[in-house]
Amino acid sequence: MVQFKNVFTGQESRNYQRAVTSQKSLRAGGKHNDLENVGYTARHHTFFEMLGNFSFGDYFKEEAIYHAWNLLTKEFAIAKEKLYVTIYHTDEEAATYWKKIANLSDDRIIKIKTTDNFWSMGDTGPCGPCSEIFYDHGEQVKGGLPGTKDQDGDRFIEIWNMVFMQFEQLDSDNRIELPKKSIDTGMGLERISAVMQNVYNNYETDLFKEIIAYTENIVKVKVEGEAKFSYRVIADHLRACAFLISDGIMPSNEGRGYVLRRIMRRSMRHAHILGSSEPLMYKLLPKLVDLMGTTYPELRRAEDFASNILEQEEIRFKATLERGLKLLDDETNHLSKNSELSGEIVFKLYDTYGFPVDLTEDILKAKQISIDLDGFNNKMQEQKERARKSWLGSNESKTDKMWFDIKAEFGSTEFLGYYLNEAEGKIL
Ligand code: ATP
Ligand code: MG
Ligand code: MG
Ligand code: MG
To answer: Measuring CA to CA, how many Å separate 199 from each of 99, 145, 412?
Structure first.
């Protein structure tokens, strides 16, 4: 909903009051980070497509509930007995509409007190209660109803979140009603696909099955047992990497580029688990482009470029992956469950072998060993300090000083464009 933020606050207006969207979403860093869930739950991806409907001061709670219910139970013909909803515990209005429109009994309208059911942009700004719709995949799947201690299982899966944007938080004590109440909803395409295709696991839908089968054909390890998880992670990460690159992001050691690099390296580790000795990810790209390139032409446009990046990045990391894994093994073999790996080793893996911290964490999860994050951060700080000191004495810093000196003596100059020769008007 980022593109609509200012429309909700009234700072910006559009010539429409309703919108529907299908958005590329990535949750692999920052406030929403599902990277560590991928492969472990049936419902989380790093990259997914989020469907939404929006109202900017137009329809509100009653109509939003009506439309959601109508779409799920009439258009999609999902059995009512399979659906549960949550509301914010004080939102009596939402409860009333759910009863009136969907005729849901009280035990199917679950009141939640946490911020899971109260959306806000930050400490101030527009905010409001949410109502979420859950699908019951049946008792053969482990997991409890939302609000219970087993809620993280995959039996009751959240398919749709509706935010009723009705307040504005002015400061910590003051909240007012918004003059124009709005709606912002999000439904995961992969989750609703699973429901519609009668599978509980997103990775068993047509969106993923073909990629996994294609990978199996190359890797030649059966998709079963532990290998299944690696195939899922690879399929998920392939989508994330390809979409990030096609949107102009390059692997690097900072910011968005590092989010991409972390995802890439995780997938490479899983390729390694499957015994793939050659770079793998770039070989899977044509299949993805085949499947999604018509809907997302940017994927097709970037194919050659992305293929190159994926291959180069994999070649580069392969050189240290095995040695890093060996070091990690040696360092943890003597450690017992629930112990901690020292920050120094985690730093060495990061600095010398190119292991992002979350990759190390992920590898150790299976052994139930955690990492000393504070120790790692201290080492990182020390390294930055060393780098700063050596920069001060370097040629680079002397060159920079020279430019500053020139500027001090002659003042700023105006950039006139890339003319090789102004008389001839040749442009470089
Ligand atoms: P969950 O509790 O399952 O992690 P969420 O509450 O974090 O989901 P929202 O932020 O409410 O999810 O996002 C709106 C919708 O987007 C969800 O109802 C779900 O259908 C979908 N969704 C959210 N995160 C993911 C993800 N990592 N992968 C696939 N779909 C997702
Ligand atoms: Mg979540
Ligand atoms: Mg949730
Ligand atoms: Mg939610």
So the answer is: 29, 19, 65
